[in-house]
Amino acid sequence: MLLAAGSARRLGRSKALLPHAGEPLVRRAVAALAAAPCDRVTVVVRSSERLPIVRALAGVAAPVRLELLVHPEPERGLGSSLALAARALAGEPGLERLLVALVDQPLADARVFAALLEAAGAGLAACRYGATGPIGPPALFPASWLDRLARLDGERGARELLEGERTSGHLALVDFPGGEVDIDTPEDYARLLAGAPPPDGG
Question: In the list 24, 34, 35, 45, which could disulfide-bond 56, CB 3.0-4.6 Å?
Fold first, then answer.
């Protein structure tokens, strides 16, 4: 699940459609998820960006099942996007686990996603930003967690839930140097463009 419905108020333009290394961020992220590999990729989008994102994703990730999920109230925040995705997938036959990624983490690539899939098995996994850094997305959840994710709302995502599992020792961690890099402001984007290109997402 790729969350790409943020308002980008501070950035002033669509995060999903920002070009980087010759492609929009949304296209790079979907390609990386497909290469991880994920069997299906669902992108949560704003209604105003659905058509531009459809065009940006043309021809990517085949033959992976790719679909867009329009968030009717994206202004409610990240937690509501994750809850919408969880509700949409509830009861999906054959669903074993859900990998959640954010479109504005440009350094997340297929290697990070594959490491999460390998580390978690049928359980939980999240990324650790540096040896002693915080944890956060991308993250992997078993299907049994969909009910908990469906109750999220507002800007707060699943970090507190993951921290609780980390404390109890039930969370696998994948080191992701650069995981703290996200695109919230024009300055963030300028720093990304001025630095080294991120690893190829596949």
Answer: 24
